[in-house]
Amino acid sequence: MDGKNLVVILLSATLVVVMVFVTRLPATLRSTAGLLDCSPWCTSSDLKDSTRLLHVSGDDGPRHPLDPLTIRELNRVREVVKSYGPFKNSPYALHYVTLGEPEKQAVLGWKTGDPLPPRQASVLARAAGKSYELTVDLLTGDVTTHETGPHFGSPMLTMEDMVAAAVAPLASAEFNRTITQRGVDLTDLACLPLSSGWFERKIEDKRRLMKIQCFSNKGTANFYMRPIEGLTVLIDLDTKEVIDISDEGKSIPIPKAANTDYRYSALPHNKKSSSWSPNPISTEQPMGPSFTVDGHLVRWANWEFHLKPDSRAGLIISRAMIRDSDTGEMRSVLYKGFASELFVPYMDPSDAWYFKTYMDAGEYGFGLQSMPLDPLNDCPRNAHYMDAVFNAADGTPYVRSNMICVFESYTGDVAWRHSECPISGMDIREVRPKVTLVARMVASVANYDYIVDWEFQSDGLIRVKVGLSGILMVKGTPYVNMNQVNQEEYLYGTLLSENVIGVIHDHYVTFYLDMDIMDGSNNSFVKVNLKRERTSPGYSPRRSYIKAVRNVAKTEKDAQIKLNLHDPSEFHVINPNNRTRVGNPVGYKIVPAGTAASLLDHNDPPQMRGAFTNNQIWVTPYNQSEQFAGGVYAYQSHGDDTLAVWSERDREIENKDIVVWYTLGFHHVPCQEDFPIMPTVTSSFDLKPVNFFESNPILGFPPNQEKDLPVCKAAAA
Description:
- By secondary structure, the chain is mainly β.
- It is 12% helix and 36% strand.
- Its cofactor is Cu cation.
């Protein structure tokens, strides 16, 4: 092969590999002109335009103390750090730039119309192999340097890290030769940058490492189903040097592309023409949505909260308050809530799989991996879209359009109902429809898509829901049928199709919940145990009953909860300083679901890093520096700065400003229905009022009336 042809092939391969990630780079705004408008079919004279203009963050100035950094402010950060001493004569990268949030009391005391507290940017950066924590005063340009402490690990990856790492192997003649020997054309190559984890090896403490694995995208967009199994390239993230190439899968064929493409346009006709498909369904709002979005402040029904995007946390809810229907006052529920960390360990200890133990937020950036939402499919009509402004490694700001959507949801569910039958002598049917407000984001972290919803209900409940979707990360195998597998051999998963194994894995999503119940930050955590009690002899025909026993947690270890079906309990966060009319402390309770628990050995390095999953519930005293359950520096971390480590101090939490941490857990044993795409699997937990109101707030919400709804008919043939 002559040099000219080799250059063409390498350039083509580089383009293909980069295209794997290009959707994560700055995207242009999407037009709403093509959205379906059914207004000609509706006869309601009050029908308003059902399409919503996209909200562009642009360069709007901040209006709230918690508003995210604007384009102008990010440009200010970029100019300031260029002149920062260690960065003047050395290449540097800004890994995480976010608002340096004001002190909590300053935010709580702020009222609309007041001057904003001084605006600051919090920066995690790297230069010359060292991590830096900086605070930039956006008015004065002053830079404050903070000690990073005696920790291991480094900040989350930049997009430039990932793209450069994915193409780095192409500079290796040995790698290119190996790809060709495996029967793959370099122009059909798609490679993924995979965090390498930490496994107590000296090299991991001296260098930022990444592993690259590749796939063939020939014949399908779903290259995940065509792994070049056993081929793993270890690279130095800073120098892009190829350190090692391991190829232990030479005898394993690359799975076929047939019937793997997920694009509807690419499906064969027989796949599209199913025996049944639903007619289009659209929920109309003839008077428009009943929520408002003012900058980052959302108001709906009796709720008000602050909503913003973040490159690491994704979607952040702050200052969630609900109106008391009796007094008309806004009452605090949640100061701040977000997905703090995601831990995804795969259960295959072989050379090409053992390291797949990802921290999706702390390593890749949950917000950084959020793609623009697709109107009508990700979010319904009348949704409001919110853009994000993030920064490239050199600090240059860019807009991620449509990252968050807000919409009202009505699926025909009932919020409350009651009917009286003729026995009572009353003919009564009272029903209230269940309408909720949803704030949604979707993060596409390589093959997996995480759909995160914060759903607010008119009865005061907040439901936090996570949906797992996307595509499996599969393993190549020589087997095409289970009858070829020896009884003694374990596959570490399920044979899904010819030459394809779906490896068993877990997902843990740990949420940070700074609960501020009812006009004060000082709260207490109460475990309400349900205990069986026996009745006294002769007292009742009953022999037993259930008794609620309330135990107030004094210190952190009292509030470390491993959920147990044989220990039925409720978990309350109360304000002991505020009581209802009849004397109950006001509060909210955590209603668990998604209760899968980690089965890994506590001394297994991945579990040491992910020790925040050792309990489903933790409670810590508020500390502004303790927000990321896996630590600030999660990449190649040792587990020495996690929620589990902080809690070992066993600090006092009774009647204190406290933070609750809840982990949604999923065990995933793949099945054939997960091939070649996975149906969305969801789980959620609730924050539910418990003696927070004097009575049920649903009582004051009206039922639907036919006169208020549009009259629609199908389009004329």
